[in-house]
Amino acid sequence: SLDWRPLLRCVTGWDTGLHSQNAAEVWLLQQLLAHPNRTSAWQDADVVVLPLLPLVSLRAGIACAASDPPFANTTHRRRMGAAVVATLSHPAYARRWGHDHLVLTNYWDAWGMFGGKGTASHAALANVSFGWH
């Protein structure tokens, strides 16, 4: 699954203290999901926002059982691998080879989090924009 919001149950305090200042991916995704101009059909979208929460996933480590399948007891690396497969196999990716895709994150080391050169995730996400602001 590409929707990693269930992982929030595994990261206590993600929205408090110092963690909250680095939770832009969560706040922005929530705003985009509620936006009145949002389309539910990817074919109508100019930009495809992947609902990954990479920093939340990284902090979750081995996901807690409360996150429910398919995330329970998975690692960040395994979740990234599944996300890469799901992204590459979706027709929205093939439309522009990811050039119209966006992953929201404000983590300073995005490629360290997603995977360095030579990894499957680097190859899959090389054309995807990272919205770290």
Describe this structure in words.
There is one protein chain. This protein is mostly helical and 133 residues long. It is 40% helix and 8% strand. The protein is globular and about 40 Å long.
List the helices and strands and how they pair.
Elements: H1 17-20, H2 24-34, E1 48-50, H3 54-60, H4 76-89, H5 91-96, E2 101-104, H6 110-114, H7 120-125, E3 129-131
Parallel strand pairs: 1-2, 2-3
List keywords for this structure.
133 residues; mainly alpha; three-stranded parallel beta sheet
Shape: globular
Distance between the termini: 25 Å
- What is the strand content? 5-15%
Helix-strand category: mainly alpha
Poorly predicted tracts of residues: none
Mean pLDDT: 85
Radius of gyration equals: 14 Å
* Main sheet: strands, sense, barrel: 3 strands, parallel
Note the total helix count. 7
Number of strands: 3
Strands ordered across the widest β-sheet? 1-2-3
Helical proportion?
A: 25-40%
Instruction: Name the helix and strand elements from N-terminus to C-terminus, one letter apiece.
Output: HHEHHHEHHE
Brief overview:
This protein has 133 residues and is mostly helical.
